[in-house]
From TrEMBL, chain A:
Cofactor(s) essential for the protein: FAD
Source species, domain of life: Bacteria
Family membership noted in the UniProt record: Belongs to the acyl-CoA dehydrogenase family.
Pfam families in alphabetical order: Acyl-CoA_dh_1, Acyl-CoA_dh_M, Acyl-CoA_dh_N
Stretches assigned to the Acyl-CoA dehydrogenase/oxidase C-terminal domain: 229-377
Name by which UniProt lists this protein: Dehydrogenase
Boundaries of every Acyl-CoA oxidase/dehydrogenase middle domain copy: 123-217
GO molecular function: flavin adenine dinucleotide binding; oxidoreductase activity, acting on the CH-CH group of donors
Transmembrane parts of this sequence: none
Keywords: FAD, Flavoprotein, Oxidoreductase
InterPro entries: Acyl-CoA_Oxase/DH_mid-dom (IPR006091), Acyl-CoA_Oxase/DH_mid-dom_sf (IPR046373), AcylCo_DH-like_C (IPR036250), AcylCo_DH/oxidase_C (IPR009075), AcylCoA_DH/ox_N (IPR013786), AcylCoA_DH/ox_N_sf (IPR037069), AcylCoA_DH/oxidase_NM_dom_sf (IPR009100), Mycobact_Acyl-CoA_DH (IPR052161)
One Gene Ontology CC term in the entry: plasma membrane
Protein source organism: Nonomuraea terrae
Residue ranges annotated for the Acyl-CoA dehydrogenase/oxidase N-terminal domain, each copy included: 5-119
């Protein structure tokens, strides 16, 4: 056995011992919010103790120091299980890798190990009511004090803020320069008394995200991620990681709009031999495999030291498009069962209704197309009037 | 093995790319397809002999290089990108059929010649009026005659049927469906070159009327099923290369063509179509890498992976070639521009060795749906 095979076997054995196998029949909300937080934390800790958290992160910050091959092997095995790790996905997928890349030695030692052990949960505080696609138009401010900074403003659509311990926040530190040049990224303590979190209910009826208000929230000087006024560069690093994390999903039995799930739905209704449905199921399989393979190419290139640049956006876009396409297929397979509701379909209905959310979260499809066009293909930027205008002279939505 | 190219594959691709640029760039391809041969014999000699592509995946014991499917795929991408007319695909499928059938005597005799590129071989399976690329029950028949067999029937869409000296013909014989070898020249053989939509790909209708043939021993059904996978890998490789060429050509144009005071690539109507073309190419190419990986190290997964890759490249290439014409505006519709050659190649490639529905049905079969 090669070391990868050994690792894979060890992962499988651990998962079989410790994780719940995926059960089609059980009720799921597709967002992992049905599991109590304490259970998620316990599980993440056990995962870390067994050597399966932070697989590719350096050992000195609590990681396993292994490569993409191991990560892929683990994810492939984990696809058959229901892991209650939802609350950690953002921290480990975005702020974590950003701190790893841009953080100070002290930030890495302080924040990364507890993140991996499931002791501290993180959220991403980028979007604002009038700054979503155009995040750089954000209006939350951070003003210098004698000891650091004080933050004021409002964020919105913040996933997981309700249980987060820390957030990576973008705030304007200089309004007199063009919008991309006066932003700084900070680590903010979500337990500060000036932070107010209010849940927002989404289309599926759940409340996975929030609006977050900052009222004179002090942050110390050493909470800056990267450099002062270079927050846009840090944001680009984080969004790049986000898109890889979101896009690289691929085949999992737990995906309600995935091949396994829709094949099962078609079988239950005797539709799997309908020639048109059968072909669309085959195409779903093909598109899903292509996405998995593309994610794997990006991971392997990263390991081999090849810059993947903005190609994570291509994966994110492909994943969102596939989910929207599969949502249509699900409707054609399920017909009135879907519209009228039935107990075994809760998770499919949630996924069909939730598919547009995936095409907005982490940057909309239009924005991803712009990024692929401009940063992967090198096309000229959209004509824009705001690149060189000082932020305080820009037109913003009200 | 991984999904990223090895140094050997990168250098092979580079060599083939240079060969295409030097010896068979698109203006040269135009001259060739204007003539009456479907390819330039000198270019073929270079590809087959100098670059060793004819024998690349033929086992070493039969005079080939015994290279991997991923290696061949890397070379085919470059030939697809250049729309290079050549009988390589026909030869790869003929050699693949022989290797899969494993008739030792025939292999000893023919594979070394195919490996050197001294002889063009092809596979004749499709029949008129049957949409299955490989018919389950061929109407072409083989009856015993003298020490061998005599073939009667018609095969269509035979790759390089006009030039091939070795034809491997699927026919119903006394002991079931088999693969029969016809060596040209032969009596009772009529070849009519197709006037197909894609001038870069030569195909022909071949009629057998008591044509002398020999039965190639082996499991014909299993061998042809495997060859369907090889065809998917090879065509998907060419299509992926061609999609990449369409993307590069159109991206370049979008940077230098100005309307309303901006390069057209600055407008989302153009930019977003190019982003979609990028994704069609990048994802189907990743699926192709997974398919060649399966061919080289996990054969049980080859059938599904190859059909999946091919279903994606065929459709993706058609969409990309169409957009290449559209995004070039008026010039893209002219004969003088290359865009229409890609579009025609995509149209023909979409049905070659099984159309999109055929591939999806095949994929569903392999998945056990
Ligand atoms: C489920 C979910 C979870 C989220 N989680 C988080 C989170 O944890 N943290 C966080 O900070 N944010 C989060 N978001 C916010 C998300 O990043 C934004 O919603 C997204 O970037 C879009 O911004 P917006 O909502 O302001 O839409 P807008 O930017 O107002 O866009 C409206 C429409 O206009 C289009 N559009 C805008 N600009 C252009 C342009 N230049 N060209 C073409 N089309 C354009 C958009 O594509 C969209 O279709 C989440 C969103 C969702 C749905
Ligand atoms: C069959 C045919 C017959 C014709 N007959 C005539 C005729 O009789 N008389 C005549 O005068 N002309 C004729 N034309 C020319 C035709 O009107 C032009 O080709 C057409 O207007 C496009 O212009 P263009 O070729 O310069 O392309 P371009 O303007 O260079 O466009 C190239 C690509 O960029 C896109 N594009 C350009 N600007 C934008 C933008 N702002 N936003 C989004 N996308 C953009 C276009 O949609 C196109 O896809 C004919 C063309 C054809 C193909």
């Amino acid at each position: 056995m090669t070391s990868i095979d050994e690792f894979r076997a060890r992962a499988r054995a651990w998962l079989e011992q410790n994780a719940k196998p995926f059960d089609e029949a059980a009720g799921h909300d597709g967002e992992g919010t049905s599991v109590p937080l304490e259970e998620s934390k316990r599980f993440q800790k056990a995962l870390w103790e067994a050597g399966f958290a932070g697989i590719t992160w350096p050992k000195e910050y609590g990681g396993q120091g292994l490569g993409a091959e191991e990560l892929i092997a683990f994810n492939q095995e984990a696809a058959d299980f229901e892991l209650p790790t939802g609350p950690f996905v953002i921290g480990l997928g975005m702020p974590g890798p950003t701190i790893l890349e841009l953080g100070t030695e002290e930030q890495k030692r302080r924040h990364l190990p507890p993140m991996l052990r499931g002791e501290e949960i993180w959220c991403q505080l980028f979007s604002e009511p009038s700054a979503g696609s155009d995040v750089a138009s954000l209006q939350t401010t951070a003003t210098r004090t004698e000891t650091g900074w004080v933050v004021n403003g409002q964020k919105v659509w913040t996933s997981g803020a309700q249980y987060s311990d820390f957030g990576a926040i973008l705030a304007r530190t200089d309004p007199t320069v063009p919008k991309h040049k006066g932003i700084t990224m900070f680590i903010v303590d979500m337990h500060h008394p000036g932070v107010t979190v209010r849940p927002l209910v989404v289309a599926t009826g759940h409340a996975p995200f929030n609006e977050v208000f900052f009222d004179n929230v002090e942050v110390p000087a050493d909470a800056v991620i990267g450099e002062v006024d270079k927050g846009w560069d840090a944001a680009v690093v984080m969004l790049r990681n986000e898109r890889v994390a979101i896009g690289a999903g691929g085949r999992a039995r737990t995906n309600a709009l995935g091949y396994d799930s829709l094949l099962e739905a078609a079988r239950t209704r005797g539709l799997e031999s309908d020639p048109a449905i059968r072909r669309r199921l085959a195409l779903l399989y093909a598109r899903e495999s292509a996405l998995t393979a593309y994610g794997r190419v990006l991971h392997e290139e990263t390991t081999a030291g090849i810059q993947i640049g903005a190609r994570g956006s291509a994966a994110k876009l492909a994943g969102a498009e596939l989910a929207l396409w599969a949502a249509d297929l699900a409707q054609d397979i399920l017909g009135s069962d879907l519209a009228l509701g039935s107990a075994d379909l809760d998770r499919v209905v949630a996924a069909v209704v939730g598919a547009p959310g995936g095409a907005v979260a982490g940057g909309t499809n239009e924005i991803q197309r712009n990024i692929v066009g401009e940063r992967v293909l090198g096309l000229p930027k959209d004509p824009g009037v705001d690149r060189n205008t000082p932020f305080n002279q820009l037109k913003l939505s009200r | 093995m991984s999904l990223i190219f090895t140094d050997d594959q990168k250098s092979l691709a580079q060599t083939v790319k240079r060969f295409v640029a030097d010896r068979t760039p698109l203006p040269k391809v135009r001259e060739v397809i204007g003539g009456d041969r479907s390819y330039d014999p000198e270019v073929w000699a270079g590809l087959a002999g100098t670059l060793g592509l004819a024998g690349l995946t033929i086992p070493e014991e039969y005079g080939g290089a015994g290279a991997t499917h991923a290696d061949l795929s890397a070379a085919l991408r470059e030939l697809g990108a250049g729309l290079v007319p050549s009988p390589l695909l026909a030869c790869v499928l003929a050699a693949g059929t022989l290797v899969a059938l494993d008739d030792e005597e025939v292999n000893r005799k023919l594979l070394p010649r195919l490996a050197e590129g001294h002889v063009v071989g092809t596979l004749a399976v499709s029949e008129p009026g049957n949409r299955q690329w490989i018919p389950a029950r061929p109407a072409t028949s083989a009856v015993r005659s003298g020490g061998g067999f005599a073939l009667s029937g018609t095969k269509v869409a035979v790759l390089n049927g006009a030039e091939a000296e070795l034809l491997l013909v699927q026919a119903a014989g006394p002991e079931g469906t088999g693969v029969y070898l016809v060596e040209r020249p032969a009596d009772g053989l009529t070849v009519a070159k197709d006037d197909g939509v894609d001038p870069t790909r030569g195909t022909a209708t071949v009629t057998f009327d008591g044509t002398a043939a020999r039965l190639v021993a082996g499991d014909a059904a299993a061998a042809l099923d495997h060859v369907a996978d090889l065809a998917n890998l090879a065509i998907a490789s060419e299509q992926s290369g061609a999609m990449g060429a369409c993307l590069a050509m159109t991206t370049e144009f979008a940077k230098i063509r100005y309307t309303f005071g901006q390069p057209i690539g600055a407008y989302q109507g153009v930019k977003h179509k190019l982003a979609d073309m990028y994704n069609l190419w990048a994802l189907s190419d990743a699926a192709l890498r997974e398919a060649t990986r399966a061919a080289d190290e996990e054969p049980a997964k080859l059938g599904a992976a190859a059909a999946a890759a091919r279903a994606l490249t065929s459709q993706g290439y058609l969409a990309s070639a169409k957009n290449t014409m559209l995004l070039h505006g008026g010039i893209g519709f002219t004969w003088e521009h290359d865009a229409h050659f890609f579009y025609k190649n995509a149209i023909a490639g979409n049905v070659l060795a099984g159309d999109a529905d055929y591939q999806l049905d095949r994929l569903a079969d392999k998945l056990g749906i």
